[in-house]
Amino acid sequence: MRITPLIVASAAALALAACQNASEDKAQDAAADAAAAADTAADAAVTADQAATDAAAAAGEAAAAAADNAAPDGAAMTAQPPAEETTPAPAH
């Protein structure tokens, strides 16, 4: 009768050890997934920073182009009306 409780205790210990190993594996998998997610987030942040830098540069170029096209006195430039066509007077 002493062997039966020993077998039951051994089976319980093995089941507990198996569950702990699975928990550790799941924890390691979760940690790996979290690390991958962090890397992805960092890449996205770098991409967003680069996009912001590019947008700022484009805005600066547009502002410089607008300043180059402005009238010297600061007034907006207006389009010149087309020159009137002249027809020669008929000869008498």
Word description of this protein:
It is a single chain. The protein is mainly α. Helix content is 73%, strand content 0%. The longest helix is centred in the middle third of the chain and has 67 residues, at 3-69. It starts with a helix and ends in a 23-residue tail after the last helix.
Kindly summarize this structure in a few lines.
With 92 residues, the protein is mainly alpha-helical. The protein has one helix at residues 3-69.
Total E-strand runs: 0
Question: Counting H and I runs of at least 4 residues, what is the number of helices?
Answer: 1
Distance from first to last alpha carbon:
144 Å
SS content category: mainly alpha
**Overall outline:** rod-shaped
Biggest sheet features: none
Question: Which radius of gyration do the C-alpha atoms yield?
Answer: 40 Å
Helix content: over 70%
Low-confidence stretches: none
Query: Roughly what fraction of the amino acids lie in strands?
Result: under 5%
H/E element string? H
- On the 0 to 100 scale, the average pLDDT is 76
